[in-house]
Amino acid sequence: MIYKHAVLDISGKIIAGPFDFSWWSFEEGFLAVQNGEMWGFIDRQGKVVIPFRYRNVWDFSEGLAAAEVNDGKWGFIDQSGTFVIAPQYDLTEGSFFHRRLAPVRIGNKVGYIDKSGAIVIQPQFESASSFYDDFADVKVGEKYGFIDGSGEFVIQPQFDVSLGFHGKLGTVFVGKTWFDAKGRPSDRESEEYWGYVDRSGHWVWGPSRIQ
To answer: Taken in order 195, 183, 92, 140, is the CA torsion positive or negative?
Structure first.
């Protein structure tokens, strides 16, 4: 069965679509939608305001959205669909501007650029998130920690998984989940624990074993 996406108003009337795929919500008045193999954006009236000419896109944040062109490189477009930061990055995960910084992958490492495209934090991480509540979680080797907007560690890498900070607490996991030879979770009992840390990295709840 082939599924299509459509946009409804609050009465349930279809105002746009069907599309092959869409992101889940309007951000800054725009919704990313896929038509065939290409992506563009519609407004709240269902009008196509940025044509379907990108290989992939992420949502708008702080007036800019990451967009991929046919050679696999990513840059950032404004709300007219014009590239204001030229496609040059090897993004492999969502990249959004928060606190005027966005994570970008250059080769095998991730760093941060500002809205002019200048590198503010040098590429040095295996992976990195956007900034939320002043902190971003970054992966160094096999562990996650948290940096501030200057790139300095405020919580050293020590966690196996991070879901980031929301408000005053960060959600983190430590330990190991076992997988079988095909990469599926195995019947072997998990040794993974999770909990919350404060902005100093101290546990305020947990770690508690995942059942």
So the answer is: positive
